[in-house]
Design brief:
77% helix, Tetracycline Repressor, domain 2, 2 domains, mainly alpha, single chain, 14 helices
Length: 301
């Protein structure tokens, strides 16, 4: 049943609006932004630091709300997303649209006035990129949606850095690149065991368009690129031994799990244990990697 066929029978409450912000995704956004802020040289007043992180979180929530507003009918076709407020009939689409626009305007405006306009500008572009470039253009039209669209989730540490320094250097760009190249193996491992769900919604994810063998090859290849970029801050002397040891260990495990995905030949979702392990580990990988980077930088600067 699509959202157009379902009556709005339940009044939306605060939990539905909270669900629009995609809280689990927001937690990763907030964490990487905080790591970018802590890794930056210089000082920022604690109140301004809190304001910056709050604005980044609010901007991420705006992106999630606008994404769900636009994809309400697609979400209704997928088991994983059918229980969201819009496809489940608990909220009008216009409410989600107004909520998303309001959060976006608030987050960018406060960031610019209270922190600096460079960080506000990057935040505004990240919301636009996710809501318009990724959601409306890339996702429904190309199996490379995750590759290009990965930029949307890679902006938070850059924004956190810019909030402190008011400029950009090589390290925040490397932090951006880590998330950018982490995104394909992370989401394509999910897409392998959620292939039927994406197919039902007509979303051209790589396994549906090019097949599972191509997807596994791509996951393995991107994992090597990710490992090389993740090691770069240590190799270039931007971090110390704490990050160096951590990144080598984390990437060794990541490559091992990616190799298991590459070797797997099963086409049954319930048997794709290697893909599920890589997907689960990839989240832990990013949290630990960025925590180590921030902690190491705090000891150096």
């Amino acid at each position: 049943m699509t959202i157009a066929a379902r009556e709005i029978t339940l009044p939306a409450d605060w939990r539905d609006f909270w669900a629009l912000t995609k809280p689990r995704v927001m937690s990763l956004v907030v964490f990487t932004a905080l790591c970018g802020l802590l890794a930056a040289p210089g000082e920022i007043h604690p109140i301004l630091a809190f304001t910056a992180i709050l604005c980044i979180a609010t901007g991420a929530g705006a992106s999630g709300a606008l994404n769900q507003w636009y994809e309400a009918e697609l979400d209704a076709k997928m088991k994983r997303t059918a229980g969201r407020p819009l496809p489940d009939g608990r909220m009008e689409r216009e409410s989600a649209l107004h909520f998303g626009i309001g959060l976006a305007a608030f987050s960018v405006g406060i960031m610019g006035v209270a922190v600096n306009w460079l960080s506000a500008g990057i935040l505004a572009f990240s919301i636009f990129f996710y809501a318009v470039v990724y959601t409306m253009w890339l996702k429904p039209n190309t199996p490379q949606n995750i590759v290009i669209g990965g930029a949307a989730g890679a902006f938070p540490p850059v924004i956190g850095w810019a909030a402190v320094t008011g400029d950009l250097t090589l390290l925040p760009l490397l932090m951006f690149a880590i998330i950018f190249f982490w995104t394909p193996p992370h989401f394509w491992s999910l897409a392998l065991f959620m292939k039927s769900d994406y197919g039902a919604a007509g979303i051209p994810m790589l396994p549906n368009v090019s097949g599972q063998r191509v997807t596994r090859n791509q996951i393995f290849g991107y994992s090597f690129v990710l490992a090389a970029i993740a090691v770069a801050p240590w190799y270039l002397g931007m971090t110390g031994a704490i990050y160096g040891v951590t990144t080598v260990a984390l990437n060794a495990v990541f490559l091992g799990l990616a190799f298991a995905v590459w070797r797997n030949e099963t086409t049954e979702a319930q048997m794709m244990k290697a893909e599920k392990r890589l997907f689960g580990y990839s989240v832990l990988y990013l949290f630990i990697l960025f925590a180590a980077l921030a902690f190491d930088r705090m000891l150096l600067v």
